[in-house]
Amino acid sequence: MTTLHWIVLIVHVLIAVGIVGLVLLQRGKGAEAGAAFGAGASSTIFGARGSANFLSRSTAVLAAMFFATSLGLAYLGAQRKPPASVLDAVAPAAEVKLQDGVPAVPGGVAPEAAPAPAAVPAGSPAPAPEGAPAGSE
After folding, report:
1. Verdict on whether the full-model pTM lies above 0.90
2. Three-state SS for 4?
3. How far apart are CA 5 and CA 69, in angstroms?
4. Which sequence spans correspond to the domains of the chain?
5. Which secondary structure element, helix H or strand E, spans residue 102, and what is its range?
6. DSSP assignment, residue 98?
7. Dihedral of CA 107/108/112/116: which sign?
8. Rounded CA gap, 25 and 52, in Å?
9. What's the CA gap between 45 and 26, in Å, rounded?
10. Which residues of the chain have a pLDDT value below 70?
């Protein structure tokens, strides 16, 4: 993420917290009972009806800023390059060269030049697996 993306993201979160705070400060229509707990005193600072207008306008401004930062984050997110795949970094496999119609093996050993496993004669017991003691079958 770029520095601009981080800055817009931090501002976006701060605006969201501000909106939540302003909404919680506002009084509802039936908030006359809140005046007993000191909520009525805040109306004297802004006038009789001023706090509701101030808080609702502040909420509207923060909501517009939230909308703008949302669009900015969407734009910045669309401008990022997608993450590179590990598979894209791997070099393509070497081309297989044919020698007399038989594919060549890397390292210069052809498949028919490799030693073949020893054949077991018919009627003899199968050899014991490696690591097994002799005579235990």
Report:
1. no
2. helix
3. 10
4. 1-28+51-80
5. strand 102-103
6. E
7. negative
8. 10
9. 14
10. 29-51, 83, 89-137
Q: Cβ neighbours of residue 26 under 8 Å, at least 6 residues apart?
A: 52, 55, 56, 59
Amino acid at the residue 9: L
pLDDT digits (tens, 9 = 90+) for 15-29: 999 999 999 988 776
Q: Give CA–CA dist 3/9, Å, rounded.
A: 10
Element at 88 (helix H, strand E): helix 86-89
Joined tokens for residue 84? 């590179």
Q: How far apart are CA 53 and CA 5, in angstroms?
A: 33
What is the 8-class DSSP label of residue 37? G
Bridging pattern class, strands 98-99 and 102-103 = antiparallel
Inter-residue contact 5 to 13 (CB < 8 Å):
no
Query: Which residue in the block uniquely carries the two structure tokens 């984050």?
Result: 73
Reading the block at residue 122, the tokens are: 């018919």
